[in-house]
Design brief:
Structural class: alpha/beta
Oligomer: single chain
Number of domains: 2
Radius of gyration: 19 Å
Helix content: 25-40%
Number of strands: 11
Largest sheet: 9 strands, mixed
Number of helices: 10
CATH topology of the largest domain: Rossmann fold
CATH class of the largest domain: Alpha Beta
Strand order of the largest sheet: 1-2-3-7-4-8-9-10-11
Bound molecules: alpha-D-glucopyranuronic acid
CATH superfamily of the largest domain: Alpha/Beta hydrolase fold, catalytic domain
Order of helices and strands: HEEEEEEHHEHHEHEHHEHEH
Shape: globular
Distance between the termini: 40 Å
């Protein structure tokens, strides 16, 4: 059984929106930090410079370099903006293969850094345009802001990189990689909120798989994100530790990625005082879209719907008319639910155009211009 989302482990209950905002949500974020993901510091103001740019069919691309922390090398950011829109809403998320994989123009640099597959590859140039549907995003008047996830926080068992730097600055050194990636996603938000060409009230975080877990955590922490899309996020994302479906990844299994989490996280789900419906609840009352694939049992497609349903009382407490789907939506039927949405498609574990069809429909409905 998942614990009641409106009750803290010490028995305190959230009874109204004020206690939710002032006591309950901060307490949940602290439990998630101290038992699952580790802490991340408030960020100093970033500095940013635009280094290159070019044309796309339905908009433009820009290569930015942002300094996110004193003494840490800059992060390369790709910003794509639609043509003819004064202030564009924007999708924001980290990518797996490098910015050059999304926009293949030679001036988009191949980032340094390490993913779970190793260094980025020149042969991936332009290869992930399909996953991100850049032209489809631009055609709808939206922008995309992204950075390579492994550039500053490598996805290797060698241990977290950013939290070591934070420790040198006097902060807690318990952050796993998901916490660091979520922190980096918020640095992209820092860049977007100061750009007048962007509608800062409509920033939607997007992530696939481990980066779906990252998008959920970033949105739980950062109220500037107006909505989250988590694709195939699975265990430690929208898949709970306590109630995994048969064939889905368990807490004991995901701990093979030790560097993703707080060093204290152990394999006994009942011993963890917080679970993933409480991660989702920290996003309330903002919209959530979970997208999943039929052939992706590992990500616990059915369990994720239960997580959404178990989180819903937080939205109701805040007066939102959120309604998650009552049952698994029909395959390919579009994003079911209101505010708490779920879309289910055929196929394997990946981010693909069918996911974007659901994302476009859900963002148009939840965040109309
Ligand atoms: C592994 C891991 C998942 C993760 C996925 C990914 O399958 O077990 O938890 O979501 O990698 O990020 O691709």
């Amino acid at each position: 059984m998942l614990p009641d989302v409106l009750t803290l482990p010490d028995g305190r209950r959230a009874v109204d929106p004020t206690t939710w905002r002032e006591v309950f949500r901060p307490a949940l974020l602290e439990l998630l930090a101290s038992h699952v993901y580790g802490h991340a510091p408030a960020a100093p103001a970033i500095s940013a410079e635009r280094l290159a740019g070019g044309e796309l069919k339905h908009g433009t691309w820009e290569h930015w370099r942002i300094t996110v922390w004193p003494g840490v090398k800059p992060l390369a950011v790709l910003l794509c903006l639609p043509r003819g829109v004064a202030a564009a809403p924007c999708y924001v998320g980290l990518n797996f293969l490098g910015n050059h994989s999304i926009v293949g123009a030679n001036e988009v640099p191949q980032p340094s850094g390490i993913s779970s597959r190793g260094a980025t590859l020149q042969s991936d140039r332009g290869r992930a345009g399909y996953s991100w549907c850049v032209e489809g995003i631009l055609k709808r008047g939206w922008g995309l802001c992204t950075a390579f996830y492994g550039e500053l926080e490598p996805d290797t068992a060698d241990g977290p990189a950013l939290s070591r730097t934070w420790r040198d600055g006097g902060f807690a050194a318990d952050a796993g990689a998901i916490s660091a990636w979520a922190w980096l996603l918020s640095r992209l938000v820092d860049l977007l909120v100061r750009d007048r060409r962007v509608d800062a009230s409509r920033l939607v975080s997007v992530g696939h798989s481990r980066l779906g877990k990252t998008a959920l955590l970033a949105t739980a922490r950062d109220p500037r994100l107006a909505m989250v899309v988590a694709n195939g996020s699975g265990s430690g994302g929208a898949g709970t530790f306590r109630e995994t479906s048969p064939g889905a990844e368990t807490l004991a299994q995901i701990l093979s990625f030790t560097h993703w989490f707080h060093p204290r996280l152990g394999p006994d789900a009942q011993a963890v005082p917080v679970d993933m419906h409480q991660l989702l609840a920290c996003i309330a009352p903002r919209p959530v879209l979970l997208t999943n694939a039929e052939d992706d049992d590992w990500a616990d497609q059915c369990g994720q719907l239960r997580t959404l349903q178990a989180a819903a009382p937080a939205w109701r407490l805040l007066g939102s008319g959120a309604t998650p789907p009552a049952a698994m939506p029909a395959l390919g039927s579009g994003p079911d639910g209101k505010v708490l949405r779920y879309a289910y498609r055929v196929g394997p574990h990946c981010l693909c155009p069918a996911d974007w069809s659901a994302i476009f429909a859900a963002t148009a409905a939840e965040l109309p211009g």
